[in-house]
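Explain this protein:
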Amino acid sequence: MDRALDPRPARRKRLIVIGCIGGVGLFSAIVWAGSFSTSRVRVEAAKVSIGTVQKGLFKEFIPVTGTVQPIQTVFLDALEGGTVKQRFVEDGHMVKAGEPIIELNNPQLHMDAINREAQLLDQQNNLRNTRLAMDQQTTRLKDDLLNLDKELKRMERDQVIDERLVKDALLAQNTFLSNKENLEYMREKRKLLAANVRSDSLFRQSQVGSITNNLQLIDQNLRFLRENLQNLVIKAPIDGQLSGLNVELGQTKQRGERIAQIDVLQRFKVRARIPEHYVSRVSIGLQGTFTHAGREHAVEVFKVYPEVSNGEFDVDLRFIGEKPEVRRGQTFQVRLQLSEDMEVVILPRGPFFQDTGGQWVYVVDAEGTAAKREVKLGRQNPDMYEVIDGLVPGDRVVTSRYNAFNNADELIIQ
């Protein structure tokens, strides 16, 4: 027979399904409504910084620290090693070109120079004796030729007389022929001697040139030896101030060791270190400014050092226009200008850039509410950002840090 079924389980299932659908709908409605809501943060006006966008000249420059140095510095190194025998001037004094500074003592160098000089002098004497022997040989050959010419002229005169005597039958035919043969012999002998004189002359010319060159080379070596001994006395190559001299009597100095330096103090330059990512933008002729004694002075780059160390490279700058009164070792904050001044829209620099990367800012309206706005910033210097898009002159922008605002859509500035 039929029996009645209990409807409660089915009813409970329907209620559960309806409840789930209702919960999902309520959650969706909350999310949907939240997507149209605006998050706001109230801040005190004293805790934020506001900058005004304006149109003006933008100067793209980088601040670098410059140190005043002498325009020229000459380093003094020991050309020969030795012990300090005498010190003529003290560190910090002004010196003249050629003035001795210290003298080194090196007995071994003196002994080697004496032995080498003796060898060179011996070679020099041998070459001179060889040239003297050649001169004597040439003189002897020329003298023999002169004597032979004299004898040949006498025999030719006798030959003319012998021909007359033979015609008159006053001279034997055999004697005449014998005298004639002697004359021919002397003529051939003169030809041979003349050829020897010519060969000797050509040989002498080549040898004398070689001997002369060798003698000159020996003289140069002798001068070098004597100058090398003079290198034990270290002298000032230019006028200037001596610095870095730290030697004591009896102290040993090696060849090539730094002794001191001489600085030319009539003029100065500024040495600055610049981050390496600017190396392609810094060139000779680039100008900058710095403030000294309440006045602004101009400098320009005249030398760029390509070597990079610790992520930086060096440049030398010289003063242009009025030269300030400076001293060695002074430091200045130099603003090195990387491009020409351009009239653009600019925004005062602030720490907000660290939080947004310059992609958006809070723009303040007349009621004191600051709303988010996407922007595009370009070049920058220590004071300003170049505004490419998103802002117009007159806009007021919050330039302080944004991390305390929790990425709010609006700021209500009280």
